[in-house]
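Build the 3D complex.
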Amino acid sequence: MNKLTGIRRLVLDVLKPHHPSTIELAETLSVIDGITGVNIGLYEVDQKTENIKITIEGDQIDYNVVRQAIEKLGAVVHSIDEVAAGNRLVEEVPTLQDR
Amino acid sequence: MNKLTGIRRLVLDVLKPHHPSTIELAETLSVIDGITGVNIGLYEVDQKTENIKITIEGDQIDYNVVRQAIEKLGAVVHSIDEVAAGNRLVEEVPTLQDR
Amino acid sequence: MNKLTGIRRLVLDVLKPHHPSTIELAETLSVIDGITGVNIGLYEVDQKTENIKITIEGDQIDYNVVRQAIEKLGAVVHSIDEVAAGNRLVEEVPTLQDR
Amino acid sequence: MNKLTGIRRLVLDVLKPHHPSTIELAETLSVIDGITGVNIGLYEVDQKTENIKITIEGDQIDYNVVRQAIEKLGAVVHSIDEVAAGNRLVEEVPTLQDR
Amino acid sequence: MNKLTGIRRLVLDVLKPHHPSTIELAETLSVIDGITGVNIGLYEVDQKTENIKITIEGDQIDYNVVRQAIEKLGAVVHSIDEVAAGNRLVEEVPTLQDR
Amino acid sequence: MNKLTGIRRLVLDVLKPHHPSTIELAETLSVIDGITGVNIGLYEVDQKTENIKITIEGDQIDYNVVRQAIEKLGAVVHSIDEVAAGNRLVEEVPTLQDR
Amino acid sequence: MNKLTGIRRLVLDVLKPHHPSTIELAETLSVIDGITGVNIGLYEVDQKTENIKITIEGDQIDYNVVRQAIEKLGAVVHSIDEVAAGNRLVEEVPTLQDR
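Done.
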């Protein structure tokens, strides 16, 4: 049996111009192969840009395809804040060191 | 199989006059095609206006239809605070960067 | 198919005299058509008045009937803090803008 | 069909002498008709009195019977902090106004 | 039908010497009739004593038997912080007055 | 029927040298009779020692066997922060006195 | 019956260079035998390094294999913040001592 090694969640910190809207961005990302759903939240709005948080879930997310789609719309990925990979989506567990 | 690309949730920050009421606004939005439910909360009340938060869920929400319905009642969308799209509604996931 | 456009939840900020009691008010509201349950919490007690929070759930809540029943008992609605309408009760979703 | 108008939950702020104990009070209230369970928590202990919080759940709670049972044991109801009535127990919902 | 009037939960604030240990105390209490489980947490340790919190659940807890077992091991009950009685275990419900 | 009097959970505050590692300690404890699982979290690291928190669950935990296994690896139990015993694992319940 | 003594969860505090990315690291770890899923969160980004938190779940995690895979990619394990071992994954339980 081949193990599934796919990315199951990506959380990205992204800077984008006001246009296209987060709605268009969400629609664009949600139809990419291997993605089952996309959530985009608004961190902060500036005069010319918006800082957004993109949460993507799926069973085989290809980060390069995601990044290219984001850049094609004039936005840029600042950081990859969370990645989950494997047969099962594992959540980050708060430990005693995080308190 | 065609992938569903529909918007599943919209959270809007809206400024409205006191009339029509949030009840009328909720009723108006809740019967739009592709919308299964609407929640309206009150952020702040001013002498002439109310700042409200509209959470809309459905399987194929058309933002343009929503925005026009809002504007027809004399209100205006300040920002789109959250969008979710895809086959499955994905929630925003709190990360280490959000603490 | 006709879409249900009914109000499913109302949260009201209400000022009332000490009598009738919140118990009588809860009983009165709970038997109104379209209402399945009522919760009344006490915000603050003054010498002559009580500031209360009324949460009403149902499948076809008629706000005018609710307001008239409240006023008939000598109380007054200060604000409608939350409304939910539609086929399904949608909860308010906390976003990055609410932190 | 007659609608059930019964009280399903009562939360009472009560002042009582040290005797009888909260255990006796809980047992006394729990056998009253229409009551399925009682929880008594201790807010504060003074030299002669105890300030307690009584949470009562049931399907047809009669407040007058409850109050008389409480007073018969030498205690007094300070305030009714929450009431729920109707076919279904509705919880108080936190709104944007409560933050 | 006779109504069950039994105590279903007791939370006790107890002062005990270091010996016997909380483990022996938990084992002793857990085999008393009407008790299904015991949890003992450590509030504070002093040179000669330990302040502990005992949570007991069951369907017919006899407080006198519990107290005697505690005192037989040299410990003493400071206060009964919570009692639940009735056909069903009712939890304390946070109200607007507790915020 | 004999009542099970076994310990179902132990939470221990332990001081250990850096070696053996928490991984070896977890493996050693997890195979002891009556133990179904072990969790070890890191409170604090010093130059020569580590302060750790051990959560052990099972149906018949023998504390003496656990303590000896811990001491055999050069570590020492500072305090027993929680014990649960009985037919059912009872959780500590937060009360009004804990706020 | 042989008891399973395997590690079921590891939470690691790791320092890594910017390349390879957390995505490559997550993919590499997720295909190791005995691992069912990996989550990597970003604690902090410096000019040359990233401090990350790796949560690994599985039924027989071999820490030495994990550490070697991490080091082969130029990263280093700072501390093992949590380990869970045994037949069942036990969570760390917050006690009165942690408040």
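The two ends of chain C are 41 Å apart (CA to CA).
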